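Data availability (excerpt). The following record was deposited with the supplementary files.
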Amino acid sequence: MAQFETLEICRIDLFTAQDELQQRYTDDVVARILRIREEYNWFIANPDAKDRQFIENAVSRYGIHKSLAYRDLGVIKALLPHLAQASRDFHRYRYNEMILETYQMAKKRKDTKTMEKAASSYAKYNRVDLEDEQAVPYDMIVVQPFTATDDPSVLGIKPMPRLQERIQELLHKYQAENIDIEDVEFEEADLEESTLFPPTTQSDDKADGEENIL
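Predicted structure:
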């Protein structure tokens, strides 16, 4: 059975009753599920154990090869978050069940003090004293209007007096100081390449080769 397939089966049926497992899977698959279930219980009962100790226990207890024990360990570690959440949900259910049972027993004895404690514990645990969260009415949310502005006072910055006039004064000043600068249009450079780099002939190439040899 492939590792991924084993993980998915254990995610669903790790704690399913053995007779139901035998109706769903082959004997080999059922045997591995039951072994992983027992290994998982050992893993939870020994939270400080090292991986090496888990492998040694699995090999000696079930007579399996180390490689298979490591694969079982990989399945268990992959299942832990899912099983931990399921365990918390189960314990929450059991807590409420125990509190309600305590309340009923106290009610039969007319033990109002215990009834009050049980009711208070139930309300606190289930947070019934808190108001339900209200859904956000997205259809009633108004989009914040934004308007472009060059006024820095909206940011708490004091605006510069006569700003536009100052800009124009500086433009005139620097344009007057650089009056000799003028824009020119792009012109194609005339390098007279045909004169500077005349085409060579075969005889010229041969002569150059002879000079290089000499």
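Summary of structural features: The chain has a mean pLDDT of 80.
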